[in-house]
């Protein structure tokens, strides 16, 4: 009997090549997941549409009663203040002026002329941004180009030009400080010295368009005393004029000039300006308006000057600076749609991971790609890229359209700045806002991966990003500033407009379109938060079962 | 037990056995109390020349927490229905109770009851905290600032109105969930409806548009019920303002009932 061993069956082997598990394949898989869910695509389209619509709504109205007809335009187009006491004479061609600031004092002190106009600030001295120094200016008309080297009681030596530009020198106090301003063509170089022989260069600036013959001399200005009191639910801002007296000696003028000095006030105080929006803030805030100074006081604020034996005593009021009290933030107005886009991206980012948990899809995903950390990174990249790709055109379109419409509605210089996609600030704001929205989507993805529950993650991220904007005006100023430095809200600094100037006595508040961090820094804070939360999510995904 | 009673009982059982309901109710209370206490801590009599000339609306300030607390209420209202769509329970629910608008009504009643209880607790604790803190900030009876009492008409209106705002916001969440059938979509829509108007009014310089937003957007209008001082300066009166919010809630619920009735689940 013969037994035949049956042939052993060969196990089935697929003839297909093994699949690759490269990161690119993972990215492709995640992108396929995202784009094959129809309601997410609808959500994206809706986000873009509603974002543009909301921007249009926000730019629908005219500037209302906020257009100040008497605003003064500077050479840069923005509104400026130009009011000070000037002791001057013409200088033709190149030359230099040297002067020693002997002392500076509160111009209203001593005579006891009037009480402080600012509540809670009875015990004031000279304002920190009072200015005494040397100035070369295109004539004596307000708003003209200039370069000035000055010393201030609170902010040391500064070289400023054309109202908005500011260069810091040493921290020296206005006590026997020598200043030298040299003109060479349109270049101006400032030097300072403690003794008049050992000079330190402050810097060189170019004032384009300054004519060959310009007025050169000594000036004193003392900016409005600005106080702000913010507490939960109340905000009071106060402005009142102030005066300062500067004493100069060793005044030397080298160049084609005469030797006859003329002293006169430049500009006249019209009204102290307070933001003319009594109720634009979320809580019931009240602003304590200042009473207008009486006529006599306006005369008095023109200051005085006298010279005796080469010693000039100049008293002045006002400021040579940007005018931050007029207008509004028409940059943010053109980006209003980003708030609603932020909400949708937060929801989509969360859903991109939580829906995998709800449907059990996460088990398939992690079976196919057992390296769990990479899955989350791939998801973050995909949702970030998709959000940016949708946010950028929507933001840009809404912004360009809104700015155009606002200009037609009367948002025009000098009170409002003109923004467009062709210029730095507008372009930065649009790209930065889109980057912020993409990072919010990543943050929401990470929050969803940590919480594994969509409701909590969506609400949490939206409130984290938007509540400080709404309630920020209610918090004490210091707390708000720290909030805008440390929390993801810091990213809204990409919407910072050019309206805030550090060389002014005005606190940096989000309501003033001022954020304590620079745009890149604010975006960096959000990036750090997203990265940290993503790391936490990776850790949780690796550690715990799904 | 009547059909309505059974429906209410079923919905109540569902709502109370989901842990998120109590988490959210607790969160709403905590947010109200914490934000309210923080707000009250910052207010003082510095800007009050006389008690009569004092514009600090301490009652309203102590109830500021509703700005955040209402988000928790909206989530609670939305989740009461949207989680059924997420898990598929909605099919069992509608098999057991085929009269669909009745289901939504029963849900509205139990959600309103839970939120009203949580809101009442939050408002009571907030007012009590303010009563304990305010004398330390100069609002003493001796200085002419008697503590707020629920016996005062305006204070009672603010307290009851705040609870009602929370209830109405939760109902908006519920109605949007019935329309959109998705937690994420309903929450995003509810939060956008609530918070976009206060954000928009910060950038719009035209006072007429700000005034319109204050009158007709749900959150600014509804919260005008909290005012106890300077009523003449409100864009819309306290009760009419609450009526605007109620109109939004009613519209959301009616639209939700229609969608629930005509669409398959």
TrEMBL record, chain A:
Residues 262-309 are annotated as: Disordered. This is Uncharacterized protein. GO terms for molecular function: ABC-type transporter activity. The chain crosses the membrane at residues 40-58, 336-355, 376-402, 429-451, 458-479, 517-539. Keywords: Membrane, Transmembrane, Transmembrane helix. One of its GO terms (cellular component) is plasma membrane. It holds the Pfam family ABC2_membrane_2. It comes from the Bacteria. Residues 274-308 have a biased composition (Basic and acidic residues).
UniProtKB/TrEMBL annotation, chain B:
This is ABC transporter permease. GO terms for molecular function: ABC-type transporter activity. It comes from Streptomyces smaragdinus. The keyword ATP-binding does not apply. The chain crosses the membrane at residues 21-41, 61-81, 102-128, 156-177, 184-204, 239-260. Keywords: Membrane, Transmembrane, Transmembrane helix. One of its GO terms (cellular component) is plasma membrane.
């Amino acid at each position: 009997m013969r037994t035949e061993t049956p042939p052993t069956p060969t196990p089935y082997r697929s003839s297909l090549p093994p699949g690759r598990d490269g990161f690119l394949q993972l990215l492709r898989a995640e992108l396929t997941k995202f784009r094959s869910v129809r309601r997410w695509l609808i959500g994206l389209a809706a986000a873009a549409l509603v974002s543009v619509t909301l921007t249009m709504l926000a730019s629908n109205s005219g500037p209302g009663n906020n257009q100040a007809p008497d605003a003064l335009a500077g050479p840069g187009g923005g509104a400026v203040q130009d009011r000070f006491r000037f002791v001057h004479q013409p200088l033709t061609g190149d030359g230099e002026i040297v002067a020693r600031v002997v002392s500076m004092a509160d111009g209203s002190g001593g005579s006891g002329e009037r009480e402080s106009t600012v509540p809670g600030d009875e015990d004031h001295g000279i304002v920190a941004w009072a200015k005494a120094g040397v100035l070369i200016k295109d004539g004596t008309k307000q708003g003209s180009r200039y370069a000035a080297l000055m010393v201030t009681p609170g902010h040391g030596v500064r070289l400023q030009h054309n109202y908005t530009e500011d260069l810091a020198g040493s921290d020296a106090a206005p006590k026997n400080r020598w200043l030298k301003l040299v003109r060479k063509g349109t270049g101006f170089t400032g030097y300072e010295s403690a003794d008049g022989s050992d000079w330190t260069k402050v810097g060189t600036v170019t004032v384009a368009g300054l004519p060959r013959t310009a007025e050169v001399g000594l000036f004193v200005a003392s900016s409005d005393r600005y106080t702000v009191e913010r507490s939960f639910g109340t905000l009071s801002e106060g402005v009142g004029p102030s005066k300062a007296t500067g004493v100069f000696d060793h005044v030397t003028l080298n160049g084609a000039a005469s030797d006859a000095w003329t002293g006169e006030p430049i500009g006249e105080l019209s009204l102290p300006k307070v933001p003319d929006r009594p109720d634009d803030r979320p809580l019931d805030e009240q602003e304590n308006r200042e009473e207008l100074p009486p006529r006599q006081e306006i005369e008095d604020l023109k200051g005085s000057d006298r010279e005796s034996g080469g010693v000039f005593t100049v008293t002045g009021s006002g400021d040579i600076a940007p005018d931050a009290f007029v207008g509004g933030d028409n940059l943010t107005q053109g980006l209003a749609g980003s708030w609603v886009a932020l909400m949708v991206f937060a929801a989509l980012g969360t859903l991109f991971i939580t829906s995998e948990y709800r449907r059990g899809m996460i088990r398939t995903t992690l079976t196919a790609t057992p390296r769990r950390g990479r899955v989350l990174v791939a998801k973050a990249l995909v949702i970030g890229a998709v959000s940016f790709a949708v946010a950028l055109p929507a933001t840009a379109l809404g912004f360009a359209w809104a700015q155009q419409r606002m200009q037609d509605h009367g948002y025009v210089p000098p009170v409002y700045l003109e923004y467009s996609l062709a210029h730095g600030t507008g372009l930065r704001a649009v790209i930065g806002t889109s980057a912020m929205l993409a990072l919010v989507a990543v943050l929401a993805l990470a929050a969803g991966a940590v919480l594994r529950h969509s409701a909590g993650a969506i609400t949490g991220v939206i409130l984290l990003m938007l509540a400080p904007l709404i309630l920020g005006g209610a918090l004490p100023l210091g707390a708000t500033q720290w909030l805008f430095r440390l929390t993801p809200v810091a990213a809204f600094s990409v919407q910072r407009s050019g309206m805030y100037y550090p060389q002014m006595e005005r606190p940096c508040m989000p309501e003033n379109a001022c954020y304590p961090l620079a745009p890149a820094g604010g975006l960096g804070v959000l990036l750090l938060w997203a990265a940290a939360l993503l790391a936490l999510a990776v850790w949780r995904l690796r550690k715990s079962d799904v | 037990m009547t059909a309505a009673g059974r429906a209410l009982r079923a919905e109540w059982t569902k709502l109370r056995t989901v842990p998120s309901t109590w988490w959210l109710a607790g969160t709403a209370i905590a947010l109200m109390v914490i934000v309210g206490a923080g707000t009250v801590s910052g207010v003082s009599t510095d800007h009050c020349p006389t008690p009569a000339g004092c514009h600090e609306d301490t009652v309203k300030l102590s109830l500021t927490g509703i700005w955040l607390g209402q988000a928790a209420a909206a989530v609670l209202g939305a989740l009461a229905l949207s989680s059924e769509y997420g898990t598929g329970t909605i099919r069992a629910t509608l098999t057991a109770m085929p009269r669909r608008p009745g289901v939504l009504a029963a849900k509205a009643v139990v959600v309103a009851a839970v939120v009203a209880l949580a809101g009442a607790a939050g408002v009571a604790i907030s007012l009590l905290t303010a009563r304990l803190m305010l004398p330390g900030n100069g609002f003493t009876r001796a200085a002419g600032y008697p503590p707020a009492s629920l016996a005062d008409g305006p204070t009672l209106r603010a307290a009851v109105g705040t609870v009602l705002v929370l209830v109405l916001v939760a109902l908006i969440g519920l109605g949007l969930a019935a329309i959109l059938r998705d937690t994420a979509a309903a929450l995003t829509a509810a939060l956008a409806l609530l918070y976009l108007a206060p954000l928009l009014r910060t950038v719009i310089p035209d006072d007429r548009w700000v005034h319109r937003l204050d009158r007709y957007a749900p959150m600014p209008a509804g919260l005008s019920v909290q005012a106890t001082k300077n009523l003449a300066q409100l864009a819309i009166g306290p009760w009419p303002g609450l009526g605007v919010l109620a109109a939004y809630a009613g519209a959301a619920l009616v639209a939700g009932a229609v969608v629930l009735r005509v669409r398959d689940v």
